C-alpha cells in the first residue's frame, strides 16, 4: 500500500464525533438577510461568539476543580458514614489522580481522531456517572469506582479544554481566554469548599455532576476547532467555524491562509521518527511543556488544597473549613487578576513573579511551623505562629494563582507543534497528573512527619521553578500559534 493510501486511510479513521459546526455557515448567511434578530447580532460579533464558546467549555474545568476540592470538606462525614479508615479515605482522595492519568493517556489521541468537542462529550458522560455512583455509594468500592470514572473525565478535560480555547482564540485575546480554564478550576474548588460547609456529602456529589450535565447538550451549539478541521482536510467546515468565531463582518482570509500553510507544512509527514525528537523544534517545546506542568504540581499546591483543613487545624485555626473557603475565595480573585494581566504583562513575567512569590511564602510557612512545633500549645507564640502560617499559605495560593496555576496549561497548548500535539500533549498531561498523584498520596504522610519539613521541600521545588522559567520559558504573548511553533525550527 502506498504512503498516499495510508494517509487517506488514516484520515478516514479521524472523524468528528459531534457535528463540526458547519451549520453556523447557514446561520450566518441567514443573519445577513435578517440582521434584526438577536442571534444574528451575536454571530456577527466575533468576540462574543468566542467568549460564549469559552464559557461553555469552561464547565469542564469547573467540574475539574470541584473534584479536587470535594475531598477536603467531606473527609469526616464520609469516614464516619461508611466506617472508613484514614488510609482508605486517602486512597479515595488520590484516585481522582489515577483516573486522570488514564484519561491523560487517551486524551491527546482521542482529541486528534474525533475532535475537541467529541473528546469533551466522552469526558462528560463518565464524569456524571462517577458522581452519581459516589452519591449512592454504600461502601468504599463504590466510592473508588465513582472517583476513578470522574477522574478519567477530568484527565481528558485537562488536556482538551486548554487546546480548544487556544485554537479558537484570536492572538490578542488568547492569554485572557486561556486563563479562563484556571479561573474555572478555582471556581469549582471554591464551590466544593463553600457548599461542603452545609451540604451532606451525598448531595454535594450530585451537585458535582451538574457542570457536565449542562456541558453535554451545550456542546451541540458551539463550533469545532477550526485548526483541527483544517488538519482533517474539512476545508468548508474549517472556514465556516473560523468565520463564526471571528464574526461575519470580519475578513478571515489572512488567518485562513496562515493556518493552511501551517497544516500543509506539517501534513507532509504526519508521523515523526523517534530520532527526530532530537531536533530543537520537537524536544524544546516538549521539555518546556512537561517541565512547567510537573513543577506546577511538585510545588505542593494539590497537597495544600486537598488537605487544607488538616493544615489549618495543625496551625491551630479552629474554624478550618471556613478558612479553606476563604483561601478558595482569594484564589478565585487572584486568578481573575491573572486573567486581566496575561495579555498585558505576558506569560514569562507573570511566571517569574509567581514562582518567586511561592518560594518566599513557602519558606515563611516552613519557618512558622518549625517555631510553632517548639512552642507550648497554650503560649502566645504558638497562636502567633499559627496565624503567620495561615497568612503564608494564603500568599502561596495567591502566588500560585498569579502564574503557575494558569500559564503552564496555556503554554502547553500554544507551543507544541501541530503534528505531535496529540501525543506530546498526552505525555505532558500524564506527567502532570502522575506528579499530582504522588503529591496527593504523600502529603498526609509528609504532614504527619513534619509540617515544617513538608513546606521546606515544596519551597525548594518552587525555587527550581523560578530557575526553570528564567532559563527556558519563551514569551508567547501577541504571537499566533503558527508563529510560536515555527520559532523553534
Describe the protein.
The protein has 489 residues and is an all-alpha fold. It has helices spanning 3-13, 23-33, 38-44, 46-57, 59-70, 75-82, 86-135, 140-168, 174-178, 180-195, 201-218, 226-231, 235-246, 253-267, 280-298, 301-306, 308-314, 320-345, 347-373, 380-404, 407-415, 421-449, 451-472, 481-486. Helix 7 packs across helix 11 (201-218). The longest helix has 50 residues, at 86-135. Residues 1-13 and 21-40 have low confidence and may be disordered.
| Secondary-structure element order, N to C | HHHHHHHHHHHHHHHHHHHHHHHH
Structural class of the secondary structure composition?
mainly alpha
* Biggest beta-sheet profile: none
**Total beta strand runs:** 0
The number of helices is: 24
Radius of gyration: 23 Å
- End-to-end C-alpha gap: 32 Å
Q: What share of residues is helical? A: over 70%
Topology diagram in text:
Layout: H1 3-13, H2 23-33, H3 38-44, H4 46-57, H5 59-70, H6 75-82, H7 86-135, H8 140-168, H9 174-178, H10 180-195, H11 201-218, H12 226-231, H13 235-246, H14 253-267, H15 280-298, H16 301-306, H17 308-314, H18 320-345, H19 347-373, H20 380-404, H21 407-415, H22 421-449, H23 451-472, H24 481-486
Helix pairs in contact: 2-3, 2-13, 4-13, 5-7, 5-8, 5-10, 5-11, 7-8, 7-11, 7-22, 8-21, 10-18, 15-21, 15-22, 15-23, 17-18, 18-19, 18-20, 19-20, 19-23, 22-23
